[in-house]
Amino acid sequence: MAAVQLPTFEEEIALAAQGFRLVAGIDEAGAGAWAGPVFAGAVILKADPGSDLVRDSKMLSPGQRERAAELIRSVAVAWAVGSASAEEIDRLNIRQAGALAMRRAVEALATPPNFVLIDAFRVPGLAAPSKSIIRGDAKVMSIAAASIMAKVARDALMRDLAERYPGYGFEEHKGYGTALHQRALKELGVCPEHRRTYDPVRRVIEGTDKK
User: Where are the domains of the chain?
Assistant: First the structure.
């Protein structure tokens, strides 16, 4: 079995050697969901947290993510989350809305970064220079930390939305396209948190989803 890749602090150390001592990692969560906002996390770490819990959030269980988030909050120089609503996703498209959520997360940091490391995206409009890294959440510690903060915050919101819009199962699938979600859409129709430009939702609105 291949060894699991864990993120390292090497990018941050290299940037510190160039004078960039406040490096923020940013990542998003929820781009593929049919409902709910897209979230982004931004985290500035002063050192390697020294825990293998800080890794790509998709590799962690919900309980592990909660513990990792608690650790990150305790060791980070600064952390923040930002989001873009379902309406903004429909109006802008998911790529631009994800970038908007990332900018909002960076702008919400109590300590402004002087460099930003981004998972895959290019994010225009940042006040600091930036670098996009493919699979950054698996490779770079601060991006992995940001992925965890984004996922934990978004999951918490989706649990709240499950109480506001009962029957959709948001507390279980967090807005993603599961069989449960598909059945709920057919039975209940769309709610204000659904992304109307996404094909499975659009087909329900148009009445063309007859499967």
Answer: 10-163, 164-206
